[in-house]
Write a structure and sequence with these properties.
The chain is an alpha/beta fold. The chain contains nine helices and eight strands. The protein has helices at 18-29, 41-51, 69-79, 109-131, 165-187, 214-223, 230-233, 235-242, 269-283, and strands at residues 9-12, 33-38, 58-63, 88-91, 135-140, 192-198, 253-255, 258-259. The termini are far apart.
């Protein structure tokens, strides 16, 4: 099947700044119908208006807070008014906090925002992804997932005992790797491809939020002159969203435009299935 992004409906979470903004702008410029999200509705809508340049560039903005389960469900409800299908879902948004914070739903904030929220969003959008004859899910992870050297501790996924910002972030990105691996096992035969992406170390506003890690913000500032631009960081997402399937060569983890071999614990089938089951229980999707 010939894949043309100009005929596709694309969602980019966190599409109002950084890598997400550059990804949305590039795909919209190629004729895709793009929906960007932000925790602030006004920001999502204003950015969408700036990106919309004529009939060939159709961009709309919706409110979405991936740390809030009600917000995710409301987003999916609003999305249904705009489109019946989703061809490309780019789970781009990510965060890191400087201390352990609980969400309104009682989850550790980094785990909820970087993994559990995208897990719920993806599951709720599966019917729309399956409507398309073929579709793609792009999950932004990070090479920092390798910092979770012992894998995930399923007895304490919320890090209620031994929390640190770096550990929470590494765990959330390993969870995204395992999520991607399991998605491929469950849905590839149904026309849904899934990929994990390391965009590179990119100069964005990552780590600069109100509750962000001060050490991360300092590191980003010091390393600033040596980091990739947001436009460069978006290149892998754009590549995987636009290329023909034959170009992937069966590779599912991509770093800075090229396939890279995932670690063994990122491809642990038992851990991936166990994480999926645990996530369903957290979100009560198994009832």
């Amino acid at each position: 099947m010939n894949w043309k992004i100009s005929e596709k409906s694309v969602i980019v979470t966190g599409g109002t700044s950084g890598i997400g903004l550059e990804t949305a702008q590039e795909l919209a410029g190629r004729g895709a119908e793009v929906i960007i999200t932000s925790r602030a509705k006004a920001k999502a809508e204003a950015t969408a208006r700036k990106l919309s340049k004529g009939e060939a560039s159709r961009v709309s903005g919706l409110e979405l807070d991936l740390s809030n389960l009600n917000s995710i469900r409301s987003f999916v409800s609003e999305l249904s008014k705009k489109t019946e299908r989703v061809d490309v879902l780019i789970n781009n948004a990510g965060t890191i906090t400087g201390r352990r914070i609980q969400t309104a739903d009682g989850f550790e904030y980094t785990f909820a925002s970087n993994y559990l929220g995208p897990f719920l969003l993806t599951n709720l959008l599966l019917p729309k992804l399956e409507v398309a004859s073929s579709s793609r899910i792009l999950n932004l992870s990070s090479e920092l997932y390798r910092g979770a050297k012992r894998g995930l501790d399923f007895s304490d996924l919320q890090l209620s005992k031994r929390y640190s910002p770096s550990k929470a972030y590494a765990n959330s990105k390993l969870a995204m790797m395992l999520f991607t691996f399991e998605l491929r096992q469950r849905f590839r035969d149904r026309g849904i491809e899934a990929f994990a992406i390391h965009p590179g170390v990119v100069k964005t506003n990552f780590g600069s939020g109100e509750n962000s890690s001060k050490s991360m913000a300092l590191m980003m500032k010091v390393m600033g002159p040596f980091l990739k631009s947001a436009e460069q960081g978006a290149e892998t997402s754009v590549l995987l969203a636009t290329s023909q399937e034959v170009d992937f060569g069966g590779n599912w983890y991509w770093s800075e435009g090229s396939p890279i071999k995932p670690s063994s614990f990122a491809q642990d089938g038992l851990a991936a299935a166990k994480l999926w089951s645990a996530s369903e229980k957290f979100l009560r999707l198994d009832q």
